[in-house]
Amino acid sequence: MNALPPNEGRSWWLREALARPEFAGDPCPPLDTDTKADVVILGGGYTGMWTAWFLKELDPGLDIVLLEQDICGGGPSGRNGGFVNSFWDDLDFLAERFGDAPALRICRAGQESVEAIGRFCEEHDIDAWYTVEGTLSVATSTAQIGAWADLILAVDRMGLSDTITVLSRDEVRAMVDSPVFHAGVLTKAGGTVHPARLARGLRRVLLERGVRIHEGTHVSRFGAGDPAIADTSGGTVRADAAVLAVNAWAQHWRRFKRVITVRGSYIVMTAPAPDRLAAINWTGGVAVSDHRSAIHYLRTTPDGRIAFGIGGMQPDLARHIDQRFGYDEGSIRVAVEDLHRMFPSFADVPIEAGWGGPIDVSGDHLAFFGTLENGNVHYGLGFTGNGVGPAHLGGRILAHRVLAKYDDVLALPLVDLEPRRFPPEPIRSVGAMITNRAIHRRDVALDGEEIPNPFVDFVAKLPRRLGYNLGP
Fold it and tell me: Is pTM, for the whole model, over 0.70?
C-alpha cells in the first residue's frame, strides 16, 4: 500500500506554478502605508482578481487596491481540481428553483465564462493547460444509476440533448475504463485547467494593468461605510467602493455566518503514468465526477497523472478554518483508498502529493452575489467547490455592480439571491458534523453495494428534508 504523501504546505498545482518564473512573478509586498483608492478588493483568488480584471476593462483609469492575506492563488483558486464548468449539471434544480428560462440564462452565462477563460489564456499567453473535452458524471455504484433522471427530463424538455447526453456502461468505459463505472452523463460544455497557473497568470495581467496588489496583508478590521475602510497591520485603505471576495473565510464575518458553512475538500496526485492511462482508455482529457454525496472528482494532467479529489469532508466540528483543512491525514487516506478502488491498476503507482482546503458551501449549492445595505460594498460567495468558471461570471457581475453599469448578467437570479440560512451555533457545527459523518458512512456502504444502516440513512438525508440542496 502507498505511504501517504507528505504535507508540503501548498498544493501540487501551486508548487509547480511557483517554480516557473512566468507564474511566480515579482513579489507584491504587504501594505505598509495609508492609502486611498477607487475600489478596494479583499481576496486574491479568482473572484477578486476577475472582478479587478473586469473593472479595468470597463474603466482602465480606475485605481484598484487588492489585498490578499496569503499570495494570489494561495487559497481555493490555487488548489482546486481545475474543473472549468458552467451550471449545466444543476439545470434541473435551477429550473425548479427559478423556472426554465432563467435556468437557461444562468447556464448560458456560465458557458460564456468557460469559453472566455480559454480566450483569456490564449490572448495573454498563459499556458494554463486549458482544454474543453467535456465532463463525465458517472455512477460508481448501482444505487447511483439513474441519479441523473431529473436532469435528463429537464434536458429533454428544453431540447438540450446536444449539450448533455446519457451514456451506457460500455460508452462510459470506452472513455474511462473503471470496474466501478456503470453508466453516466456527458456534458460537453466543460473542461479543465491548471488552476494555479490560471490564478498566477491572472495576477500577472492585473499587475500589467496597474492594479495595486498587496500580498501577505491580513485585513484586521473592515468598515462598510462611505468610504469603505480596510485596516491592516501595515496601513489602511480608504475606498469609494469595496468587494468582498473571501470565500470560506466569510464564515468569520458576522454578516455571512448563517449563509455559508465550511467543508473540506482533499486531493491526491499520482506520479506520471501515461501508459496506465492509455490502458484504461483515459487519453482524451475528459474530467470525471460521480454521484456520491461526498463527491469524487478526478482528472488527468498532460504528463499522465491522475488528480483525485473527494469533497464534503469535515475535520471535527470545524468551527474555525485552521491547518486541518490544509492537510487532514484521515481524509487524504480515504482519497488514496478510493482512487485505488476506482482504478486498481494504479495501486502501485506512487502518490506524490496530497493537500486540501476549505470550501464555502451554500444551502442551495449555488453561488450568490449581492450588495450590503450601505450600497458600496459588494460580495460573491457560496461557490460550493465549483468556482473556477462561476468566479469569472462573478467577477463580471461584481464589476458591473461596483460601477453601476448595466449588463445582462445583473438580471440573473444569482444576483441579490437571498441564500438559505443555516441554523445558529452550536446546532450548526454539531449537526453538520453528525450529518456529514452519516453521509460518509452511507456513501461507503453504497460503494460496497450494501444497504446503509436505516438510522444512518435517515440522518444523511436530513439536510434535504430541511430544504437544503445538500446531501442524498
Answer: yes
